[in-house]
Amino acid sequence: MLQAIIFDMDGVIVDTEFLEYRLQEQFIESIKEHDRILTPLERSEVVGKGLSEIPEIVKKLSASSLPLEEIKQRYIDFFNQLFATVDYPSIFRKDIQKIIDFARQHHIKLAVASSSRLEHIRTILTKCGIIQHFDFIVSGEQFERSKPDPTIYRYTLEKLGVQPQNTVAIEDSFFGIQAAKSAGISVIAYEEKRMHIDQSQADDCGKDMNEILTIIQKLHHSS
């Protein structure tokens, strides 16, 4: 039986991954110092990465001569300004409540393990009215390396007191899927076809929270 479900946040609980992807694209264009059009594969390099790693990727893709620290500060300012206006409840995958209800009925622990800043995670979960349902919330900023490094998942397993074979992760990004798999956790991918994301390493894939719930129910009752 399942003991825990660990959710990524951006692109899973809220449809922010694609929003961030488009904004990251705008930011790169704003500091780009070459005329080449970036490929979809290159633009997807930032998807699922933590703040500690994104500025370096942005610098590489833009070929900007700006110092790395200045790019990081500009990036933070850019996103803080834009995300301050986002209506998170409007992009909230509300059917996650059905998974939460199933987990509570079957005494399955719930966690969020996201590469986003902890304050950002807590703000979104609070605005969507679900923060109280999670037994543990952790941010990639708390570790030296974020996803695809598996540390964030191993730490979450330890804090929840569960084994990887009794846990499932819900992820959307290539790096997130890699991180969970490297920690020995089965992964259900939240299907994403608007960006160039390789989800082939996931064990299952669902088009929405209802499909993911069906997969979770099967995993729980078959294990």
UniProtKB/TrEMBL annotation:
Its cofactor is Mg(2+). Pfam families: HAD_2 (PF13419). One of its GO terms (molecular function) is catalytic activity. The keyword Ion transport does not apply. InterPro entries: Beta-PGM-like (IPR051600), HAD-like_sf (IPR036412), HAD-SF_hydro_IA (IPR006439), HAD_2 (IPR041492), HAD_sf (IPR023214), PGP-like_dom2 (IPR023198). The keyword Magnesium applies. This is Phosphatase.
